């Protein structure tokens, strides 16, 4: 048996950031992080897009923006940026509805995580890759996790504080029954690959087309070297209802003239149902995708994951209340974005309804998608969505 004070399961953006935050801010105790991946840090299933400091400032609340800014400045270095993007092109069905300002960074996510982990190791954290958590139990005021090490067989890790940062559904959540989980329509199956194609190096492309990505969208993000990060998001209840997500992916690739570089298309499940009903139980906590910290309207997960890790790290060091911090700082935005996503679901699931909406008001639909992509908390954005709700529902009923 191995003993530690904090065991973090999962070494992605949330887990790596938490380990680094604790060692850099004087946490009194031993910190161990395990991850089932055998390589630090691969494979990457992600668009790898991060906002610039100024992009989101006009759209989100001050306290949340302050935490976001902290996570960016603590992790993002110039050498992790592979391309700077200035515009977002929005394509709805087959209609190019124009470009909008969109100063963002295309990053090397693996390099960023590796740097954060190496910094944690240099300051005393224990990091073990190739270790899979099989189950965790509450015992004698702490937690015991049975793990399988690819090189050392099975053993138990005992910890005072347990953190699930291992995506959704988390082994910590499943073992301890912390949350109610998500329904199928609150999950996305996301694909990921790299491809060549004739697209502007300074322009990210988002394609809203229920025929290609029902319940989600497709993306083309330029890397600055002629290649692009590409993928689609397909709602879980559609993806596995007699449909193969790879067929949707290949239809997107072929339609938009993309030539894939990697033979294998990677896939993973992403929650888009907002934050889960609980963030922890006792001294067991959930952060990152494990707690649902993916923006429901745009699928962004890197910064949201680090925001949850920052709030938990602060609570652990200051003996604070993680749940209260999440509810005050982060939940208002997540609830608003979930509302926007659910209002838009009738369009996201029906190409015909989307087509009718475009013909009636291309500008309203375009601006709504843009503002939802920026996670807008502005009152006029909410008013715009609420005004459009009867129209969207009418179009959905007409389609049925």
Provide a compact summary of the structure.
The protein is of the alpha/beta class and 400 residues long. Helix content is 37%, strand content 29%. The chain is built from eleven helices and 17 strands.
Explained architecture:
The protein has about 400 residues and is an alpha/beta fold. It folds into three domains: about 1-75 and about 110-185 and about 275-335, 3-Layer(bba) Sandwich (FAD/NAD(P)-binding domain); about 85-105 and about 185-270, D-Amino Acid Oxidase, Chain A, domain 2; about 345-400, no CATH class. It is about 35% helix and about 30% strand. The chain is built from eleven helices and 17 strands. The strands form two sheets. Strands 3, 4, 5, 10, 11, 12, 13, 14 and 15 form a nine-stranded mixed β-sheet that branches. Strands 1, 2, 6, 7, 8, 9, 16 and 17 form an eight-stranded mixed β-sheet that branches. Helix 1 (about 15-25) runs parallel beside helix 3, helix 7 (about 300-320) packs antiparallel against helix 8 and helix 9 crosses helix 11. The radius of gyration is 21 Å and the shape is globular. The protein starts with a strand and ends with a helix.
In the residues, how many domains can be counted? 3
- DSSP, total strands: 17
Distance between the termini: 59 Å
CATH superfamily of the largest domain: FAD/NAD(P)-binding domain
The CATH architecture designation of the largest domain is 3-Layer(bba) Sandwich
Compute the gyration radius: what is it?
21 Å
> Considering DSSP H and I runs of 4 or more, what fraction of the residues is helical?
25-40%
- CATH top level assignment of the largest domain: Alpha Beta
Helix run count: 11
Q: How do the helices and strands follow one another from N- to C-terminus?
A: EHEEHEEHEEEEHEEEEHHEEEEHHHHH
């Amino acid at each position: 048996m191995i003993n530690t004070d904090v065991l973090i399961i999962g070494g992605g953006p949330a887990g790596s950031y938490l380990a680094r935050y604790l060692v850099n801010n004087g946490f009194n105790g031993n910190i161990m992080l395990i991850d089932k991946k055998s390589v630090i840090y691969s494979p990457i299933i992600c668009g790898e897009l991060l906002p610039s400091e100024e992009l989101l400032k006009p759209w989100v609340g001050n306290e949340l923006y302050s935490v976001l800014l902290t996570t960016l400045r603590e992790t993002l270095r110039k050498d992790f940026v592979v391309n700077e993007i200035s515009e977002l092109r929005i394509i709805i069905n087959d209609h190019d509805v124009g470009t909008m300002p969109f100063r963002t960074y295309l990053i090397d996510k693996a390099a960023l995580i590796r740097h954060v982990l190496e910094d944690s190791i240099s300051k005393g954290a224990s990091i073990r890759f190739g270790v899979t958590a099989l189950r965790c139990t509450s015992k004698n005021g702490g937690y015991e996790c049975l793990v399988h090490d690819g090189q050392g067989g099975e053993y138990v890790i005992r910890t005072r504080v347990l953190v699930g940062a291992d995506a959704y559904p988390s082994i910590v959540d499943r073992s301890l029954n912390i949350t109610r989980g998500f329904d199928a329509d609150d999950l996305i199956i996301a694909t990921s690959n790299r491809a060549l194609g004739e697209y502007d190096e300074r322009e990210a492309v988002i394609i809203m087309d229920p025929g290609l990505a029902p319940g989600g969208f497709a993306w083309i993000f330029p890397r600055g070297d002629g290649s692009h990060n590409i993928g689609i998001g397909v709602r879980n209840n559609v993806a596995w209802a007699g449909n193969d997500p790879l067929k949707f992916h290949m239809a997107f690739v072929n339609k938009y003239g993309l030539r894939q570089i990697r033979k294998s298309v990677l896939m993973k499940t992403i929650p888009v149902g907002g934050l889960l009903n609980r963030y922890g139980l006792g001294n067991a906590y959930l952060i990152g995708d494990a707690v649902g910290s993916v923006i429901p309207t745009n699928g962004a997960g890197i910064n949201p994951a680090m925001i949850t890790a920052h709030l938990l790290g602060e609570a652990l060091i200051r003996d604070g209340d993680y749940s209260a911090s999440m509810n005050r700082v982060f939940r208002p935005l997540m609830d608003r974005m979930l509302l926007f996503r659910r209002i838009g679901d009738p369009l996201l699931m029906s190409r015909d309804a989307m087509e009718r909406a475009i013909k009636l008001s291309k500008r309203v639909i375009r601006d709504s998608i843009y503002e939802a992509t920026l996670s807008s908390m502005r009152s006029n954005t909410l008013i715009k969505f609420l005004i459009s709700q009867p129209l969207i529902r009418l179009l959905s009923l007409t389609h049925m």
